[in-house]
TrEMBL record:
Coiled coil start-end: none
Keyword Iron in record: no
InterPro entries: AAA+_ATPase, ABC_transporter-like_ATP-bd, ABC_transporter-like_CS
Molecular-function GO term, any one: ATP hydrolysis activity
Record carries keyword Transport: yes
Lineage of the species this protein comes from: Bacteria, Pseudomonadati, Thermodesulfobacteriota, Desulfobulbia, Desulfobulbales
Annotated keywords: ATP-binding, Nucleotide-binding, Transport
Top-level division of the source organism's lineage: Bacteria
Protein name, UniProt field: ABC transporter ATP-binding protein
Domain ABC transporter, first and last residues per copy: 5-246
Length: 260
């Protein structure tokens, strides 16, 4: 299976104020297959956002290789890095919409900034995506006039504009109620199936988010455990994974744990 992303012995540490060193990633290796959905989970401060930043080249690894579609991000800079980033669609917490721009303008932004398309072409593309994400009729509204779920959908519409091969979602359902979160998950599953991009989702919303996952990566104390499917997690013998299952998946997987 071809990998969209591969970490080979990647380490990342930070110097703390008290002079000590905090190792966030300790020689981790894993690969993210093309066209699949990988969920990155783990407790607070375990390095999920650092992992996304390393993938995007927003942060540099201390050692090891971070391969994005075969290119080592740790070795490129400037224009080359910018070009590589065009392969990504990014939806971060809070959707990061521009409040002073309408829905239409927010979604059109990447096309206006990154392509030579005419305004006519841009209108057609934006209106098509808005229709796909059930946002038709809202194009002249401003973000403040939308619900949280709609803002996420606008963020998703914008992230999809340049037909990215890889989508990164950082806590995509933060701040949404369970009904809206469910709606967003449906939308992810639908758009992923339709467009076939590689999805990487960082989320605390376990076990719900696991329904979307082809594979799961759990980060803890500098190490990563990679599971081929969410079901595999429950059979892990590792105490910290069993603890994670108990804390986050509770009753759903409890019976299996008891049976073991
Ligand atoms: N630029 C930085 N300088 C110093 N320390 C940093 C920096 N970025 C991250 N860290 C530290 O690295 C650790 C991992 O951070 P990260 O943001 O990746 O955690 P996370 O798993 O995404 O957590 P959360 O779920 O709370 O968002 C944290 O302890 C954080 O303080």
């Amino acid at each position: 299976m071809t990998s969209a992303i591969e970490f080979i012995n990647v380490s990342k540490s930070f110097s703390k104020k008290d002079g000590s060193i905090q190792t966030v990633l300790d020689a981790v290796s894993f690969s993210i297959p093309k066209g699949q959905t990988t969920v990155i989970a783990g407790g607070s401060g375990q390095g999920k956002s650092v992992t996304l930043k390393l993938i995007l080249g927003l942060m540099r690894a201390d050692s090891g290789q971070v391969l994005v579609q075969g290119t080592d991000v740790t070795r490129i800079r400037g224009k080359e890095l910018e070009k590589l980033r065009t392969h990504f669609g990014v939806l971060f917490q809070g959707s990061a919409l521009f409040d002073s721009l309408t829905v239409f303008e927010n979604v059109a932004l990447p096309l206006r900034e990154r392509t030579q398309k005419s305004e006519e072409e841009i209108r057609e593309l934006v209106m098509t995506t808005l229709a796909q994400l059930e946002l038709s009729g809202h194009e002249e509204k401003y973000p403040a006039q939308l619900s949280g779920g709609m803002r996420k959908r606008v963020g998703l519409a914008r992230a999809m504009q340049l037909n990215p091969e890889i989508m990164l979602f950082d806590e995509p359902t933060t701040g949404l109620d369970p009904v809206m979160s469910q709606e967003i998950y449906h939308l992810f599953a639908g758009t992923q199936a339709e467009f076939g991009f590689t999805s990487i989702i960082v989320s605390h919303d376990i076990p719900k988010i696991f329904n979307l996952a082809d594979r799961v990566i759990i980060l803890e104390r500098g190490n990563m455990d990679v599971f081929g499917s969410p079901e595999e997690i429950q059979w892990s013998e590792k105490p910290h994974i069993r603890e994670f299952v108990k804390m986050t998946m509770g009753d759903i997987y409890q019976s299996h744990l008891v049976e073991k």
